[in-house]
Amino acid sequence: MARIGGRNAFLAWFVGLACLAILGVLAYLAVPMLPVSLAWVGATVGQTSETSAPVAAGDEAVAGPPTQCPKLYDEALWAAMRSTKKSVMTPSKDAPTTTATALVSALQPQVTLTCSWHSSLGTVTTTLATVPPDAGAIASSALPAAGFTCEKIDDRTRCARSDGDLTETIEAGGGTWLSTSENGWHPKDYVSRTAAVVWP
Question: What's the CA gap between 123 and 194, in Å, rounded?
Answer without folding.
Answer: 16
